[in-house]
Amino acid sequence: MSSTVDRTQPGDTASSSVGGSRLLKVLRGSAGIAIAMAVMNVGTYAFQMVAARLLGPSQYGAVAGLMALLMVLSVVQLGLQATAARRIAAAPDDVAAIEQTVLTTTWRAALVLGALALAASPAVWWLLRLDGLLPAVLLGLCVVPVTVMGGQAGVLQGERRWLPLSLVYLSVGVPRVLVGGLALAISATEASAMAGVLVASWLPVLVGSWALRNREHRAIVTVHDREVRRDVRRETYASSIALLAFVALSNLDIVVARQVLDDHQAGLYAGGLIVTKAVLFLPQFAVVILFPSMSTAGESRAAVLRGLAFLTALGAACVAGAYLLSGVALVFIGGDDYDGVQDELWLFAVLGGLLSVLQLLVYAGLAKRGRWTKYLVWLGVIALLGAGALATSVTALAVTAAVIDLAVVALLVALQVFRGKAGTETLR
């Protein structure tokens, strides 16, 4: 059996000095993840807000479509992160074999996905009606660092090394708004926006590489090590398929909008989705913190229930805020150019709340290596593509997406209840 890797790295140990120790203590705990992910999401949101203002509805709709496709193309990142985190949390004695496999697979997958995305850039150009081919090419290049970051984050998450993981998340959001905003200030084009995203995407990779430096692995690979590595690869594939379904369900509506609505209407829909993404990403730290517990026998059920209660309450508060303060929300999504969607912002908040709950349920399924989760979410994707193609307005498409998400959430909750009863019967 593989020996465990020393999880303590320089910079992780408790500081003996008083100055700065309070901040380090916060960042080393789960509160640090919450803060880091909040900053990351604010940075991501701020970049979208800057892009929406500088590009206007028509061009911003194209950039929003590119970012949605980036999420879909980088789904292996999420699969690698989920697999590494689950396996390390559930089997800490195998951390050396798991880590080495995850990091090696990560780089190989990143290069393959990047090459495929580059090959598909002409299709992306046509699908999103871009101004030129360059933004699609830059999108393909972005896949590489985004995928690598996922594998690194998964190892840190599974080992519950919250401080370096917090630094990785901080380096995702802050550089994106700073570098991306600078690129747009120099030239307000689709290509400039994606160039800024590409440069910023390499910074968390550098932070992750620093956090995982000087890792020692066994030179002798045992039969058990090889079996662990094969199982990690199989689980990564299965997790990626399930997460691809979620990412597709939460992002393909903007692609549908670019096809069924005119440029201005699609841009308004993209503006509304800024609210959706804000509500979705705001509590994302809860999934990161709870996932290791959901993967651990004896903690899973309580972790899922806590997550559902927290996300439901927060989602309801966000919907109320978007309804009562729609004018304020409009300022943050781009101003008066997007006033055509102001009355529907609460609906986009509903969409974000449903997606946040759906995300938790998908990860709960991954934690138990369930098979049915991905099938149910893929049914939702098929329904979105089919029913969404019939939409003729921003409101109609948003309602369609919300109804489909609600149906998938209900099915996954029922699946969780069934698993809980089956587990109880097994214990008896």
Structure report:
The protein is mainly alpha-helical and 428 residues long. The protein is 81% helix and 0% strand. It is built from 16 helices and no strands. The protein has helices spanning 21-28, 30-73, 75-90, 95-119, 121-127, 134-158, 162-186, 190-211, 223-260, 263-281, 284-294, 300-324, 326-333, 345-367, 372-388, 394-427.
List keywords for this structure.
disordered N terminus; about 425 residues; 16 helices; mainly alpha
* Rg, Cα atoms, Å: 21 Å
The coarse overall form would be globular
> How many E-type strands?
0
Main sheet specs: none
Query: Helices and strands: which structural class?
Result: mainly alpha
pLDDT < 50 stretches: 1-19, 424-428
Helix content: over 70%
Q: Terminal Cα separation, in Å?
A: 32 Å
Number of helices: 16
Question: Could you provide a short overview of the structure?
Answer:
This protein is mainly α and 428 residues long. The chain contains 16 helices and no strands.
Strand and helix layout:
Elements: H1 21-28, H2 30-73, H3 75-90, H4 95-119, H5 121-127, H6 134-158, H7 162-186, H8 190-211, H9 223-260, H10 263-281, H11 284-294, H12 300-324, H13 326-333, H14 345-367, H15 372-388, H16 394-427
